[in-house]
Amino acid sequence: MRVFAQRAETAIDLVEMLNATRRYFDANLDVQSRSDDGKHVELILHCEKHGYEGRLSIRARAVTRFDVLDAREAEERGQASGMGSLAERCHTVWEVESVGADSELARLNLCAILAAVGLGPVLPDDGATLYGVRGSMERVERLLRARR
């Protein structure tokens, strides 16, 4: 998944991300490693309340014209009015991947955190639509209901 961010600096601001996680999300982040330039972070997201966790990787880079095209196409497919324009205003993309065993719940939760911090939309791997914090957390809730 790609999360767009309205930041000129591509380094991942761990302090802001950890603060947002504690304040607004039912999760904890455990940083496992960080590159010297701050553009790659590996962490574990743990949600005790709902009983899931996942090891995740975030890679930061500058937005390319292909990212913007992908966002525009996803906006049209998903009828996500205005989200493509929001992506166009972003300078950075955070690529979020699972490391090892996939935890879609943890990955969606992390995307919500990053969307809140970066003030940009999330582009899922299938490119079906764009969504923000609320859309990410709605997907988490749907997956949790399906597990019951």
Keywords:
single chain; 148 residues; alpha+beta; six-stranded antiparallel β-sheet; 5 helices; globular
Brief summary of the model shown:
This protein has helices at residues 14-24, 65-78, 83-88, 104-118, 133-147; strands at residues 2-5, 28-34, 40-47, 52-62, 92-98, 122-123. With 148 residues, the chain is an alpha+beta fold. It has one domain (2-147).
Structural class call reads alpha+beta
Number of domains: 1
What is the overall number of helices? 5
| Helical percentage | 40-55%
What is the H/E string? Answer: EHEEEHHEHEH
Radius of gyration: 14 Å
Which spans have pLDDT < 50 for at least 5 consecutive residues?
none
How do the strands of the widest beta sheet line up side by side? 2-3-4-5-1-6
Note the main sheet. 6 strands, antiparallel
Q: Roughly how many Å apart are the termini?
A: 25 Å
Number of strands: 6
Shape: globular
What's the rounded overall pLDDT mean? 93
Amount of beta strand: 25-35%
Folded structure, characterized:
With 148 residues, the chain is of the alpha+beta class. The chain has one domain. The chain contains five helices and six strands, in the order βαβββααβαβα. A six-stranded antiparallel sheet has the order 2-3-4-5-1-6. The two termini are 25 Å apart.
List the helices and strands and how they pair.
Layout: E1 2-5, H1 14-24, E2 28-34, E3 40-47, E4 52-62, H2 65-78, H3 83-88, E5 92-98, H4 104-118, E6 122-123, H5 133-147
Antiparallel strand pairs: 1-5, 1-6, 2-3, 3-4, 4-5
Helix pairs in contact: 1-4, 4-5
